[in-house]
Specification:
The chain has a five-stranded mixed sheet, with no helix packed on it. It has a four-stranded antiparallel sheet with strand order 2-1-4-7, with no helix packed on it. A two-stranded antiparallel ribbon has the order 10-11. It is globular, with a radius of gyration of 21 Å. It has a domain of 189 residues: Coagulation Factor XIII, Chain A, domain 1 (Distorted Sandwich), CATH 2.70.50.70. By secondary structure, the chain is mainly β. A hairpin with a 2-residue loop joins strand 1 and strand 2. The chain binds copper (II) ion. The site of copper (II) ion (CU) has 7 residues, from loops. It is found in: Secreted. This is lytic cellulose monooxygenase (C4-dehydrogenating).
């Protein structure tokens, strides 16, 4: 009997270890699905998602694994994408069960791989800029992360005006269920190798770039969060979202830019188009992702208010059920 227990004990430990925590199983780019290799997996197939060796949490903002995950290795493939494409992440437990946690943000970065395709790029040298962050659902204490526990995915747009080139995409969950303890936050980063096409002009500024590790500190209020279960306030860690993603360019310039609608819910995507003296806003807006996803284009003279009523000036129909979404377009 005791020998049986001795035999079983490690198996039980192993089972809970394997099913806990997780990784990005697939990334879809406008619905085209890239599948990643599982951690621990024996068999390997070509992918654009860097494989990690272990789906366990990473603790400590100074841990080298916060870069692209534990022992992340360069993937073989590079996936094509275009500005404004929708990226959809399917997070799973290591055994492909549903993602097990519900507390903490999704934060997403890009880093230029320069002239080399990203399958040859050492991510330790990456200088990352933030393109997106999402915490709790508007007016709710529920985090978007909670959707994953029922098998749903998380989507965000690539910036509408990002300049073409080789980019590493770093998408992470910071799981905060243990974040009331110092260094209790769990980092789950995942890196995907992209080649972005198009003719965008948006690039980050120097003060928007960070390294990982380096971009976060364990004492940041978004990482050590004593009140995570008692307050809905949340301060995202890391740099600001790159200005070219959040601030529209002036008309007359060459290509415009995005308008992120602040609170983690609206994923605005603006695009100034100046040929005819009007703004062209291409916009997307996700509410609770699955329930509510709209997309459209607004043509509007500079200086006009698009946000108050969020009415589309042309014959476009609104599909978002009355949520106000845009601010003044600067002329
Ligand atoms: Cu976990």
């Amino acid at each position: 009997m005791s020998s049986l227990i001795q035999l079983l004990a490690p198996l039980v430990l192993l089972a809970s270890y394997v099913s806990a925590h997780g990784f990005v199983h697939t990334v879809a780019i406008n619905g085209r699905t890239l599948t990643g290799n599982r951690p621990f997996g024996g068999q390997q197939f070509p992918s654009a998602i860097r494989q990690i060796s272990d789906a366990s949490p990473i603790n400590g903002a100074d841990n080298p694994s916060v870069n692209c995950g534990i022992n992340a290795r360069n993937a073989e493939q590079v996936a094509d994408a275009n500005p404004g494409d929708t990226l959809t992440f399917d997070w799973r437990g290591a055994d492909l069960s549903n993602w097990p946690h519900n507390t903490g943000p999704f934060i997403t970065y890009l880093a230029s791989c320069g002239d080399v395709p990203c399958n040859q790029f050492n991510s330790a040298n990456a200088r990352w800029f933030k393109i997106h962050q999402a915490g709790r659902k508007p007016g709710s204490s529920e985090w978007f992360q909670n959707d994953l526990m029922s098998g749903r995915t998380f989507s965000l747009p690539l910036p509408a005006n990002v300049a073409p080139g080789n980019y590493l995409l770093r998408h992470e969950i910071i799981a905060l269920h243990l974040a009331p303890q110092f260094r209790g936050a769990e980092f789950y980063p995942s890196c995907t190798q992209l080649r972005i096409g198009g003719s965008g002009t948006g690039r980050p500024q120097e003060d928007e770039l960070v390294s990982f590790p380096g971009g976060y500190a364990d004492n940041h209020p978004g990482i050590h969060v004593p009140g995570v279960f008692s307050s809905n306030e949340y301060t995202f860690p890391g740099p600001r979202i790159a200005r070219f993603v959040t601030e529209p360019a002036a008309p007359g310039g060459n290509g415009g830019n995005g308008n992120g609608n602040g609170n983690g819910n609206g994923n605005g995507n603006g695009n100034g188009n100046n040929g005819n003296g009007k703004w062209q806003w291409k916009w997307k807006h996700w509410g609770s992702i699955a329930a509510h996803k709209i997309q459209g284009t607004i043509l509007q003279a500079p200086g006009q208010q698009a946000s108050l009523s969020c009415r589309c000036p042309l014959a476009l129909k609104r599909l978002d059920g009355g949520r106000s979404c845009w601010r003044t377009c600067q002329g």
